[in-house]
């Protein structure tokens, strides 16, 4: 595990917070989610991701980006656009996206 202070560059940077409630349809969801992570990691300005899911009730994925242009580039990516359409059509009951500017960060890691 990398040190907390080395995980991201000095702020400011951006966080895109995606919260979701899934449907029971799992048709290709996991494979698509893994592919989206691979693609996002290749995009200019991508800094990292944190994700957690507790069954279908609530999922939270936070992706981190250098700037708003990087976020817009990811949103415009053709394969990501198709995955978002599939999500609306079959994988999500509901979701919300929040975009926030990170002004400071800090953490703790036991030695």
UniProtKB/TrEMBL annotation:
<dbReference type="InterPro" id="IPR011008">
    <property type="entry name" value="Dimeric_a/b-barrel"/>
</dbReference>
<keyword id="KW-0503">Monooxygenase</keyword>
<protein>
    <submittedName>
        <fullName>Antibiotic biosynthesis monooxygenase</fullName>
    </submittedName>
</protein>
<dbReference type="Pfam" id="PF03992">
    <property type="entry name" value="ABM"/>
</dbReference>
<dbReference type="InterPro" id="IPR052936">
    <property type="entry name" value="Jasmonate_Hydroxylase-like"/>
</dbReference>
<dbReference type="GO" id="GO:0004497">
    <property type="term" value="F:monooxygenase activity"/>
</dbReference>
<keyword id="KW-0560">Oxidoreductase</keyword>
<dbReference type="InterPro" id="IPR007138">
    <property type="entry name" value="ABM_dom"/>
</dbReference>
<feature type="domain" description="ABM">
    <location>
        <begin position="12"/>
        <end position="83"/>
    </location>
</feature>
């Amino acid at each position: 595990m990398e040190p907390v202070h080395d995980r991201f560059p000095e702020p400011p940077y951006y966080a895109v917070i995606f919260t979701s409630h899934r449907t029971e349809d799992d048709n290709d969801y996991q494979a698509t989610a893994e592919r989206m992570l691979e693609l996002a990691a290749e995009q200019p300005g991508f800094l990292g991701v944190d994700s957690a899911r507790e069954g279908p009730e609530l999922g939270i994925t936070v992706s981190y980006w250098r700037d708003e242009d990087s976020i817009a580039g990811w949103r415009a990516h053709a394969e990501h656009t198709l995955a978002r359409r599939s999500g609306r059509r079959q994988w999500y009951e509901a979701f919300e996206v929040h975009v926030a500017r990170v002004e400071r960060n800090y953490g703790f890691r036991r030695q």
